Amino acid sequence: MSSPRYYPLEIDLHDQPVLMVGGGSVAARKLPELLACGARVTLVSPELSEAARRLVPGLEWEARAFNVDDVIGHKLVFACTNLPDVNEAVAAASRALDIPCNRADRAKEGTFIVPGVIRRGGVTVSVSTSGQVPALTRHLKRRLSSVLGEEWGGLVEVLSAVRDRLGSSDALPYDALAAAVRDDGPDAARTLLNASTSEAPSADGSSVRIHPVLLVGAGPGDPSLLTLGAAEALRHAEIVLYDRLASQAVLEMVPPACERVPVEKRGHFESLRQEQINAHLVEYARTGKRVVRLKGGDPFVFGRGYEEALALEAAGIPWRVLPGISSSVAVPALAGIPLTHRGTARSFAVASGVAGHDVNQDFPKADTLVLLMSLFRLEEIVPVLLGKGYAPETPAAAIQDGSLPDQRVLRATLATLREETAKAGFDSPTLVVIGDVVALRP
Questions:
Q1: Dist CA 442 CA 440 (whole Å)
Q2: Which of 93, 329, 370, 377 can bridge 68 by disulfide, Cβ–Cβ 3.0-4.6 Å?
Q3: Cα separation of 373 and 352, whole Å?
Q4: Do 337 and 320 share a structural domain?
């Protein structure tokens, strides 16, 4: 490992003159951050890329070639052309006047480098590979950006207002404060900071702070398909109420101390009634713990998530929904079946195989039909579809355990699908796709 060459620092560029030489894609990447800092940017370039041209109203553009006198009087200089000789001339003119210069094409021949920057309000995080591998810097920036939420910027505002009163604050519960900003807003963080609580009566008459219940979509089952928000919610959960459709791999993302409560909502099998689940959500929320309701797919797509939201509303419990990738779209894609395809299908519809406690008798018309909760009702559903004009030879597919290692895909026709799935021992959860797209093969 080589010793560090560059000293990281932040410099105040508000109303300071900055020179940018070059108007291509590299300049366009650097300009927004400079303009956001309030720098007075002069851009020297005979031509501009479309991306750079969109930024012209915020800077001064001189449409000409670089002159060595251009660097005079500037706080920083950026050499960003695609001509090495021009970039070297810019760097040399800057060195002669001891003006810091960033040379985009050869970082070590300039005097400073530009790190990847992530901003969340008052929080600034920079990452760099010391100018050696810019593409890796951009990749690391994306990785860090995905785990640094906007709540940290809000927390800066909360804490900066009371900085003098706090004094040395290394021992503050920063994660809990940021979570309060994320879940309930800055006022909740101020309340937590002041060691007081939002009051709600608990079973023993004491007061607890009520956190919003998070209705989280677990997607089709593969944890890599979780949204960033869902993964964050699971990492901070203290109680998780989960369906059978929430995969074990997803459940493993919760902390070891988190209480896991199975509610076993499973079609065609004995399970908790929705009213019981609603009551559990209210009961657990009133303990003051962070409650996650984990549902397969998307909470508001055949998941009765909105019924749970209404029950929480009625009990005075706050809630938020974190949408998931719906299995109705993801599972066919993972099985290699597009729901739409040019020249084959330009519409698709999603329907449940059940209507209340009965078999669904009313299906929307579309080029591709996706059926959820239909495997054990195909004997009744298929005649309905045939009666609505579907041909017996219409391609159909059944996909069991979509996205999981045990995923199985069976292709058949509408007329033979029930028999073929029974022979193959298909079980729930299985999704059915009907339409010409099923016959497409890579």
A1: 7
A2: 93
A3: 6
A4: no
